[in-house]
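Entry 14. Ran structure prediction on the chain below.
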Amino acid sequence: MSSLSLDVQISLEDARWKKVVNEPIESFLQTYIVAALSHPDIVLQIPKNLEVSVVLTNDDDIRELNRDYRGKDKPTNVLSFPQEVDLSTMKHLDACVLLGDIVLSIDTIQHEIMQQQKLMHHHLAHLIVHSTLHLIGYDHETDSDAELMESLEVDILHHHNIPNPYESDSSYMV
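Output, structure tokens:
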């Protein structure tokens, strides 16, 4: 999948996102979206020209989306909205294919890293990988699906020197 071309469209809805990681947020997002899409165990035939939309927002905005699309009237850390297209039929297209949208809330994520004593870089990378896998059809509705998805996440993060987020490992913690 080295020929993957990814266009990440970012909508910055909350200025606090500008200083979340020690590199431009665009580069950070691109790194972990590509890592998820190019993992060798991803068996889907993915088109070579892809677009992912990322909305960087806050609890007020994500709460509305969570309520309207999931029936849960509360904020959450991340939401994924896949495009619901058959990617295998588009694998030979040269045109750019929109995978879907990822929406991240700065408020909930900052609360989680403080409460769980995690590093922002690690936690955000995990959420990006997790939500990208949702965009290509992975879910955690059953135990076996959850195990598969978590295994992929852990392996992808490991290749970027980020420890297993599902374990209480001091190297993932602050």
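The chain has five helices and four strands. Will compare against last week's run tomorrow.
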